[in-house]
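Chapter review: from sequence to fold.
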Amino acid sequence: MNPNRIRVAVVFGGRSNEHTVSCVSAGAVLRNLDPERFEAVPIGITPEGTWMLAGGDAAELSRHDRTLPSVTGGGPELILAADPSRAGKLVALDDPHTALDAIDVVFPVLHGAFGEDGTVQGMFELAGIPYVGPGVLASAAGMDKEFTKKLLAADGLPVGVQIVLRPGTAGVTPAERDRLGLPVFVKPARGGSSIGITKVTDWADLDAAIAAARAHDPKVIVEAGIAGREVECGVLEFPDGRVEASALAEIRMPEDLADADAGEQPGPAFYDFDTKYLDDVCEFDVPAKLDDEISDEVRAIAVRAFRALDCQGLARVDFFVTEDGPVINEINTMPGFTPISMYPRMWGETGVGYTELLTTLVETALARGTGLR
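The token string follows.
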């Protein structure tokens, strides 16, 4: 074993509603980091915000039937603890086990709020610890669907129509309904993994959909449905600063689900949380079966979107490929790394295997460092 291995803190779990997905992603990362080059230090964050060294087998961080793992427990392995007697303030323990004393780089495999949104990125910047993935601005902008589209549109990139409902705004006006048309998708503005999203095909169902989204975020997005093929593209920054796009992936719903979901509305079924992570019913084409010209256009737009948000390290850009060309749906600045996730699968198809992909991400983070750049 190489005594000079790079120490990588793999941080996972967290306070968001994507906690369990983060745990599954982290399990795959821990199992695939090159043990000759890296020493992994797994750090789990409980849903309450307690940071702890995670023991046990990384294989436990995987899906079992329809059950997803989570971070629980406490005791002598705590690094930071949420103290209820001090209104949730964090207290550093006297002996943090030296776990963070010699960390070279952090891989924050965190999805959603309090992890993918610039919060922990800011903490690592303050501490001067290099970390995998985009910085504070790109993470925050990529998490908030309102500002993602504003920045992309300002750079001349194709985005769909959306209405933003801030706290206190009950619904959309008749003029906005005319502009959106049906169907619409109602989403938490700052969320992922399709949690809290509803497909609305009748305006009578809109209020319930808004309430479902607001259970996760007080700010809600109402997006116009876009008729097109759902395609994803991975973007990767290399240690020398090159930025490249991967082979594309297309997500297809089985016809029986599409028919059941569509009702009187034509179009595909909704790719929700259960279909993503629990039911194993989706069909994927990797690479996507698109003409070379369209594929090249999607990849070029993905790199432009990466730069428009000032991303670093990695991102996954999701598209609808319509009759009029590609339209960006959203950007994920820390995409899933589960065994079924599209980001590593797309790069595998491009010729960059999972372990090589992780090595590239860690080396890029070390080459970039922290601070203004």
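Two observations follow directly from the output. The longest strand covers residues 243-252. The CA atoms of residues 10 and 107 lie 5 Å apart.
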